[in-house]
Specification:
The protein is mostly helical. The protein is built from 16 helices and 6 strands.
């Protein structure tokens, strides 16, 4: 009997030793995974009663918020930054959630555009792929560079300010020698007139310099090769074309009239008659936030500016706005006529009445 008990005891010890060895071997092979499994299970258990919190957004604002994950940011750091930005209410809850769903290893460095109305699960999923982040930015035809800068400042998605943009497109802006030669840009000139109006889809890391370069590249692409050649054959540089086109852009309400209005101005230039274009007076009279102010007849002489074409012959020193392609084409390919005058008609339809003589012009008045 004693021998049997001793045998059973030895067998039990052997079994325990074998079991421990097996467990040790398994732990060596899968120890980290087992610990991770246990940790995830514990976190999921703690989240079981917090679904309502997970599904409750931080606020009601639908305004997009620019949010950046820097390389090396851990889930707790990301959660704290989200909380500081007002995008989530509980940084620790965010951290627990991404760990429980194994999204902590998928969070991707980059820039994202998020809103307060997104829940923690929605935000966590969004932060796994920065490729969907983009900035839609529209520049309208006839905007001057200050209006573009103002639009940048009202867009919370940009990582730079309107002032930053003005620094790289204002007087003395740096451009490649090829672009300077392409348009005939004078030394010290701004890039007014060449920031091509369009709707752009931009990556979130766009810089002021990057936006400038894109606008100039688009200008070159849209202008093409033939128009500059045709302008040069007429003795015009693209800088001069853009200057007159910017006036045509601001004058014409109905786009079909642009070639005829351009033709009137070119008729005046041909005989050295002053352009007497109201937008050039507005350009000289403008103040911050009021870039195209109303003008009176007295302003024709009271606004002392090299851009005022009621006081100065020929073209102004440079473009007063950024014209679209149609206005540029209108200057190079104007509609031929013997008109020297035009004025807004009395029908409030945006069109103009054209005249050959000043007397006819006066007769067209309301």
């Amino acid at each position: 009997m004693e021998r049997s008990c001793r045998t059973i005891a030895l067998l039990l010890v052997a079994l325990v030793v074998v079991a421990l060895m097996c467990m040790g071997f398994i732990f060596l092979l899968f120890g980290d995974d087992l610990l991770d499994f246990a940790r995830i299970a514990a976190v999921r258990f703690s989240l079981a009663g917090r679904q309502a919190e997970l599904d409750t957004p931080a606020g009601t604002s639908t305004e997009l918020v620019r949010f950046t994950i820097n390389p090396g940011d851990t889930p707790p750091v990301i959660g704290q930054n989200l909380s500081a930005a007002g995008l989530i209410n509980d940084a620790a809850l965010f951290t627990d959630y991404v760990q429980a769903e194994r999204l902590d290893v998928e969070l991707e460095a980059g820039t994202y555009f998020l809103t307060q109305t997104q829940t923690i699960p929605e935000i966590a999923l969004a932060l796994t792929d920065s490729r969907n982040s983009q900035i839609t930015f529209t520049i309208l035809e006839g905007w001057r560079i200050e209006e573009i800068a103002a639009a940048i400042d009202t867009n919370p998605l940009f990582g730079f300010t309107g002032a930053d943009f003005l620094t790289v497109v204002g007087p003395g802006a740096e451009v490649t020698p090829e672009f300077r030669e392409f348009v005939g840009l004078p030394a010290g000139a701004s890039l007014e007139g060449f920031l091509y109006p369009d709707t752009y889809i931009l990556p979130p890391d766009t810089t002021a310099e990057g936006l400038r370069d894109l606008l100039l590249e688009t200008f070159e692409l849209e202008i093409g090769a033939q128009l500059p050649q045709d302008a040069a054959a007429q003795g015009w540089s693209l800088f001069e074309v853009a200057t007159l086109a910017s006036i045509v852009e601001r004058e014409a309400v109905v786009s079909e009239e642009q070639p005829l209005i351009a033709g009137v101005y070119r008729n005046r230039l041909d005989i050295n008659q002053r352009l007497e274009a109201d937008p050039t007076v507005q350009y000289g009279k403008a103040r911050i936030g009021d870039w195209w102010p109303g003008i009176t007849r007295a302003d024709y002489t009271n606004v002392v500016s090299p851009y005022n074409t009621y006081l100065n012959n020929g073209l102004p020193p440079g473009p007063i706005a950024n014209p679209g392609l149609a206005a540029i084409q209108a200057v190079v390919y104007p509609e031929a006529s013997d008109f020297f005058y035009f004025r807004a008609d009395c029908r409030t339809d945006g069109r103009h009445d054209f005249a050959r003589t000043f007397e006819e012009h006066l007769a067209n008045g309301c």
